[in-house]
Amino acid sequence: MELSALGFDDWHEQRSAAILQPGHSIARVTAVDRGAFLVRNQDAETPAELAGKFRFAVDAAGDLPCVGDWVCVLRHASGGPAMIHSILPRKTFLRRKSPGKTVDFQMIAANIDVAFIVQACGCDFNLARLDRYLVIASEGAIEPWILLTKTDMVSPGELDHTIAQVRRRCAFANLVALSNTTGVGLDKLRALLVPGRTHCLLGSSGVGKTTLINRLIGRDALDTSAVSGTGEGVHTTSRRQLLVLDGGSMLIDTPGMRELGLLGAGDGLDDAFSDIHGHSANCRFADCTHTDEPGCSVRLAVENGTLGEDRFQSYLKLRKETEFHDLSYVDKRKKDRSFGRFIKTAKKSMRKQ
Ligand SMILES: Nc1nc2c(ncn2[C@@H]2O[C@H](COP(=O)(O)OP(=O)(O)O)[C@@H](O)[C@H]2O)c(=O)[nH]1
Ligand SMILES: [Mg+2]
Ligand SMILES: [Zn+2]
Q: Residue 34, CB half-sphere, CA atoms under 13 Å: how many?
C-alpha cells in the first residue's frame, strides 16, 4: 500500500521536504494510547514511541502526535519500536479545549477529509451539540456530514420531524439517516466513502459509531460499548483507531467525548454560521457584536424571521464560550514560548474578517 493510498498527498509532500532527515521515513499515526503509538507506512503497522529530543521540545499538548498525523520516524535495524522525531504540518484537524479547568488545546485527530457528526434518533438528538460539532469541524477545515443513527428506534413520522429540524437549523448541512440494526441507509453512507480519503466519526458515547464501523468492515474489528461497558479506556491498547476499509477509504473512531469546549474557534464559528456571518456584512458597525448596537442586520434578520432565534442564540452562546477561553489562553501563555504562534494565528483570523 503506497503512502498516497493512506492519504499522503502533494500538500504533505511539499511540507515534508524541509523536515525529513536522512535515514528517517514517513508514516501515519493509526492509534494513540497515552505514550504509546501505532504507525503505518507502505509496508506495515508497527509500535512507535516519541524520541527523547522530540518529547523534550514539545511544550503544548496540541504539539503531540494524534491519530491521523503524518510523522517522521526512525526505525532501528535491530527492531524495537519506531522512534517519532517530528510531526508534519496538519492539513486539517479536529481539536477541542482540554477537558476541565485547563485552558489548552487537545488534538482529537488530524488530516481528516470528512467528519461524520453522529447523533442517534430519539434521546441523544440535540441541535445545540450539533452546532458545536459543526463549529469544531469548520475550524479544522473539515467537511462535515451529519449522520443520524438508530432510525429503527423512531417512527417514520418522528424521523421526518428530526430531519426537518436539522434542515431548519443548519440549511447547508449534508445529512444521512441510517440504522445499524436494519441496514437501511448504510449503502448511502458507503457511497460517500472515498478511497484514500480519511473519514472520522464524532459523537457521544452510545450513538452507534463503533457498531457502524463494524458493519462497514463486515466483522467485529472494534469493541462496541455493549462489550466493553463504557466503550472508553478498557480496550484502547488493542483497539486500532484508524482503519483502512477494503474499498481503500479510511475511518477513524473516536471515543465519545463528554466535554467539547471551544478554544480559538472564531473562524470556525464564522464558517459554521455563514448565514449569520453573511448578514453581519450589512451591520452599521464593522465590529458589531449583534447584541445592542443600532443598525444591526443580524438582529433584524431574527426579527423578520429570516434567521431562527434559536440558531442566533446558539451562535451567541458558542461565541461567548470561545472568546472567554481565548482570553484565558492568552493570559496563561503570555510568557510562553509558543505564544508567538498563537498570536500569528489570531492575526491571520483577523485578516480574514
Ligand atoms: N437500535 C439500534 N441500536 C444500535 C444501532 N447502532 C448501535 N446500536 C446499539 O447501541 C449501543 C452503542 O453502540 P456503540 O457502537 O458502542 O456506540 P459508540 O459508543 O458510539 O461507539 C450498542 O448496544 C449497539 O448495539 C442502531 O442503528 N439501532
Ligand atoms: Mg465506540
Ligand atoms: Zn450586527
A: 6
